[in-house]
Amino acid sequence: MENPYLPDLAEIVSLRDETPDTKTFALRFRDRRRWESFNYRPGQFVEVSVFGVGEAPFCLASPRQGAESFDITVRSTGAVTRALHALGPGQHLGVRGPLGNGFPLDEVKGRDILFVGGGIGLPPLRPLISTMLGRRDQFRSITVLYGARTPADLVYKHELARWRARPDMEFMVTVDVPDQDWRDHIGVVGSLLPKASIQPSSTVAFVCGPPIMIKFVVRDLLQLGLREDSIITTLERHMRCGIGKCNHCLIGDKYVCIDGPVFTYRQMKAMMDPG
Amino acid sequence: MEEAGAYMIGEKQVFAWVAALLQHAQVIAPRRLRGSDVAYDAVESPDQVAWDYRTSVSPLKRRLFPQIEPMFSWHRQAGDGIELRPVYDETERVFLAIRPCDLSAVFLLDRVFSRDHPDTYYLTRRQHSSLVALACTQPDEHCFCICAHAGPFLAGGYDLQLTPLPTGYLVEVGTDKGWELVRQAEELFSVAPASAVQARRELAQQAEQRFADDRAYFAAALRKVTFDRVPEELWDQMGERCLSCGACAFVCPTCTCFTTADFNGTGDGVRCRLWDSCLYESHALEASGHNPRAERRHRLKARFFHKLSYQFAQKLGSHGCVGCGRCITACLGRNDMTKVTARIRRGEL
Amino acid sequence: MPYVTTTCPFCGCGCGLYLEVQGQRVVGAVPSLDHPVSQGRLCVKGWHAHELSATPQRFRTPLVRRNGELRDASWEEALDLVASRLGEIRAARGPGAVGVLGSARGTNEENYLLAKLARCCLGTNNIDFADRLEALPGLFDLPQHRHLTTPSLTVADLEGADLILLWQSDPSHEHPAVAARVMRAAEEGVTLLEVSTRRGQLGSLAQCHLSPRPGTDVYLVYGLLRCVFAHRPPSTPVTEALAEDVSDRSAERTEAVTGVSAELVDKAAELISRAQRPVIVCTRGVTSWQYSTELLNALSALSWVNDGALQPRPVILWLSRYCNLQGARDMGVVPYFVTGYQPVADEGTRARFSRAWGRELPAEAGLAAWDMLEQVRGMLVMGDDPVGRLPDPGRARRALRKLDFLAVIDILPTATTEAAHVVLPGASFAEKDGTFTSADRIVQQVRQAASPPGAARAEWKIVCELSSRLGYPMSYHSPGMVLDEIAALTPIYKGLSFAALEAGWGSHLSLTTEIAPPDLNGVDEETESVLHRALPAPDAEFPLVMTVDYSLQAWVDDPMVEGTVTLRRELGADRVPAWPVIQISAADAADSQLSDGQRVRLRSRTGEVQAVARLSGGVSPGIVVVPFAMREMVAQVMPSAPHPESGVPILPPCAVSVRKV
To answer: What is the mean pLDDT of residues C138-164?
Structure first.
């Protein structure tokens, strides 16, 4: 019987600073076979251990296809993330996964795809965006709207530039508080919605970010005419086991780690009600 | 020895049987602690089994899912290597003379720990365990297993079920494992005569009547909880009396909330899991400081939804209460299952 | 046997629990159903008490400070260092230059040996413990007032009460086993009254909630008594005298001083007058005030308010916060008592103990804990944390840093171990045998369930080793032997032994006390004008009165909570706020346009700090509440001050203003 609590060892291949409090780590399993059997879908997550400190969940932030490593993007907020930030290339971690349910992909072929990301909400969307761009002809339009509080808080800055340069997608970025070099949009990410050309009947929207951002963006999307099951988001909750046993991430009768973290807005609404 | 559905073991032979069991396995049975306290504990000799007990201070889950248990240890090696060593408990155990409510809870735990990602720790212990029920003929002060369909006699699931009769015990065989337990000490057992089987049937009927109590109207409460038709004021009031001690989660035979913690710092160490409670204010607290269930009334509502809703019953194969009554004694604020379901049903505040 | 019977090491309730042992380790805790206090229940702390044994925060080896840092050392080295340094200081500057602190959480046996070490080895009566502060040390010395903080009522007696009065006490935070009983009693129709600055969790069950202005509690009692006698006219000489004393404390006059409406005073008094068996539950909230003496004195008058009987009945259930405050005092961890309140000043007592102990006892009373820190040069602290316990932590910290030598015996890091030159690792309640004397004076056993972690040792052994090195050999084979010696020398512990305690669930030690009728005339005109002057005087610039709350977040800064996984997370110790959190009423918040969680400027006549304001329905308009655990963060605004008579440090309420930042 395989032990779902036992991590596999992975090492940090490289890391880079994204923002003053966020880093992206590229990780690789020590065991080659483990890497080969590690097939994940965008939207899934892993539980990462710093032995002696603890374990925390992180969404997989890079696409699997053609990769030799996988990314996690970590903001320093608690004990485990602080400990992670103190590590460097070559150091070892424990990894369990992939866990969770992943974004729909084949199910949304032929649709107009809208991504709305806020701040640290871009990491879970990134592998999905990359995967879709890799199969570009399977989708109609692809639009990415991304916002952060300040320019320094934008993640994946190099990737944003590449997206901006692509002719086969629409990309817009905004910040709440600009610096003196900022030449782009100013305002919350929701303020980009009217500027994007959205076909409500055929659009499926993937929305990730702070709860308050999601609340307002979802409201705007519903007003635009999107259906509740065409709005897809990820939920975050305190997690421990990541495998539906410890009950920390339970909302009603749904486990964010098993039935999620990806949910449609319709599913989310139903979940909140029984408390 | 003739294979049969039921055997008899005399009073005098039981002692020898327990001695025989002790040769092959750890025997966990009701054992007297201090005063009137009895707990499921390892016995070293047959005379320590308290056959005439009512209930154990702590449910059987403690033996299959300990309050604190090591999951794996890590060992630093030269050149930044780490070796992980999981810790499994493969001790052979016979759980002897366990109350049907506690065993019904084990059947639920079996389903909880098997689904999605099977829990190696619980299932390893469970694989090495034999379950011998002791049917109840007399209810204890707080029992309501009838309402929860978890007793006082089990219909199945056990390896063996013992029913106390004037001359000894009727021994019903439920599984091959149970049959093995009998066969290993076959000279102590005889095939049960029809009269004994009949006596057991009658005792079961009498017990149902004794236990039948309108203490916990589950059906009405279940519907209201499922469809969120319980007045919020009820949860408010309960919240005012709840002291977030965690007792309901810990004494409940079916609760399995836990947290994990790394012990011994960043050298060599061990990751353990520890019992946790959804009633704790910090249970859902996120690293960012956001707490989706900061208010007690929300936590109480979530707990009873988990225990009583159809959604969970479907997921887990039965409701999350076996009617053992422990929460009635253990709750500092008297927010126990029987009180809550009665008030939900009556619609009163 | 894998279930070891023991007593909870946290609060003064003294719940009985079993520690589950697997192999050599403590792996769980479960309450005793049979135990008269726990009755199958534990609070969150009791349910996780077993984590004390497993937590990696435990001290596992002796530590000696070298180059500014505490480093591992051997027992030989550490013990020799402690003995030689204390010995040196004593030799150079006299016995008055060393001080010893015992513990309200330590066992009776280890406290007894520590006090013996102080008196026999070091030749000093400078032996005390910081938590003695919460028990009215000034009042306690007088035998006729001793009953006020050594209750003869027990927690179990709450079951027989027909009226429960919670006075500045919120048992849901401090004494959950009591809260459970109070809730059950209220459900069964027992009258519940709450007098407190902040409505506690049980307030919703109370028939009346009275919120006197901070500092005016005494007046409220006088007013209540006067109305009680109006409803139930006095019929005995004692009650007549009492009624006479309070005859001018009309409900209207009471309202004017306390802010509690005359109607409410009368209503509460009427309920009290009908009670045959009232019980007043109180804790540090009552005994840490400037006029605690007068307050408790006045409350005790309710002993005589019952139907016709001439025998006063005990009504006060004062509950110490920690599991063995009662025992620490009993054991003579007091600068002027040896065991059992036998005074050091008494020649006969000294002679008796000198014979038993083989050393002349020092006659002069020693320094109290709160004075000791600044007046000695070397200290030995066992299980105490003056920085964490005293009203002025900053001052305590500075005093400890100035000591020539500080040795601390403890199980977990505390603010006091941070200043130590030597730390000696001790044993938790799960790793030693001994006894605790609960808040309601029941002596119970703790039993060893596992070995102390690493090289840690039981405190009684450490004290014996130190004593021997200091020239006074102590050779005990077990804590049982120590208890036998205690029993032989201490009339109130007579007959106690491990064997005697084995049978049941402990032994109730009632101190024989005569309840003398209180002298309510003590508050004469002059004293009253002094009382008035001491009251915080709000004005236009500082319109609100801030007071400290002893029950709110009562455990958040406790080392035993900080040191364990679940308690640290649940009781908030791992979320230390950047600013102090104060609670104010919605009305006052509205006046200053404050929203919940707003950053504010908190100012008083002595200084200002930034704080976070939380709106609370339980706080009355005009009042600001801050938890005791945050006192250091508001020290500029509400400094500690010595009690004008006893010199004991207190935290007097003060006038403040709260404004948006």
So the answer is: 84
Between CA C574 and CA B243 the distance in angstroms is: 20
* B178 token code pair: 């149970």
Residue A57 host element (H or E): strand A54-59
- What is C80-98 written as a DSSP string? HHHHHHHHHHHHHH-GGGE
% of chain B exceeding 90 in pLDDT? 74
Neighbours of chain A (3+ CB pairs under 8 A): B
The stretches of A89-205 forming alpha helices (DSSP H) are 122-134, 157-165
- Cβ contact C13:C178 at 8 Å: yes
Q: Which residues contact C270 (CB under 8 A, 6 or more apart)?
A: C227, C231
Q: Which of B237, B245, B276 to mutate to test the interface with C (most CBs of C within 10 A)?
A: B245
**Is pTM beyond 0.90 here?**
yes
pLDDT value for A275? 44
Structure confidence at residue C238 as a pLDDT band (50, 70, 90): confident
Give the per-residue pLDDT at C192. 97
* Gap between the Cα atoms of A232 and A203, Å rounded: 11
The rounded mean pLDDT for chain A is: 94
pLDDT confidence bin for B89, thresholds 50/70/90: very high
CATH code where residue A115 lies: 3.40.50.80
Taking CB atoms and an 8 Å limit, are B68 and C54 in contact across chains? Answer: yes
Q: Do C47 and B39 touch (CB under 8 A)?
A: no
Mean per-residue pLDDT of chain C: 92
Report whether pLDDT(C11) > 90.
Answer: yes
- One domain for residues B78 and B169: yes
pLDDT at position C513: 67
Residues from chain B that touch C55, judged by Cβ atoms under 8 A, are 263
- What's the pLDDT at B79? 77
Same domain? For A83 and A188 the reply is: no
Specify whether C439 is located in the same domain as C329: yes
Position A262 in a domain: no
Q: Do B305 and A252 touch (CB under 8 A)?
A: yes
User: By CA distance, what is A83's nearest residue in B?
Assistant: B266
Q: Which domain holds residue C429?
A: 71-131+323-504
Chain C neighbors of B39, CB-CB under 8 A: 3, 18, 30
Contact call for B287 and A250, based on CB within 8 A: no
Contacts of A252 in chain B (CB under 8 A): 302, 305, 311
Which CATH number characterizes residue C549's domain?
2.40.40.20
What ipTM, to 2 d.p.?
Answer: 0.95
Which tens digit of pLDDT belongs to each residue from A131-151? 999 999 999 999 999 999 999
For residues A163 and A91, the answer to whether their CB atoms sit within 8 Å is no
C89 with C120, same domain? yes
Whether A4 has its CB under 8 Å from any CB of chain B: the answer is: yes
C-chain CB neighbours of B269 within 8 Å are: 56
- CATH number of the domain within which C249 lies: 3.40.228.10
A162 and A222 co-located in one domain: yes
Q: Cα separation of B270 and B256, whole Å?
A: 21
Q: Do residues C202 and C166 lie in contact, with contact meaning Cβ atoms separated by under 8 Å?
A: yes
The encoded tokens of residue C382 equal 């066992």
How many structural domains comprise chain A? Answer: 2
**Pair (C474, C455) in one structural domain:** yes
The mean pLDDT of C257-275, rounded to a whole number, is 94
- Whether A31 is in a domain gets the answer yes
Q: What pLDDT, on a 0 to 100 scale, did the predictor assign at position B223?
A: 87
The residue in chain C having the minimum alpha-carbon distance to the alpha carbon of residue B282 is C570
Domain CATH number, residue C81: 3.40.50.740
Range of the domain at A41: 8-99
Average pLDDT over residues C526-548: 81
Q: Which of A1, A2, A3 to mutate to test the interface with B (most CBs of B within 10 A)?
A: A3
Count CA atoms closer than 13 A to A100's CA, side-chain side: 31
Q: Do B246 and C44 touch (CB under 8 A)?
A: yes
How many CB atoms within 10 Å of residue C262?
16
pLDDT band at B146 (very low <50, low <70, confident <90, very high): confident
Residue B9 has pLDDT above 70, yes or no: yes
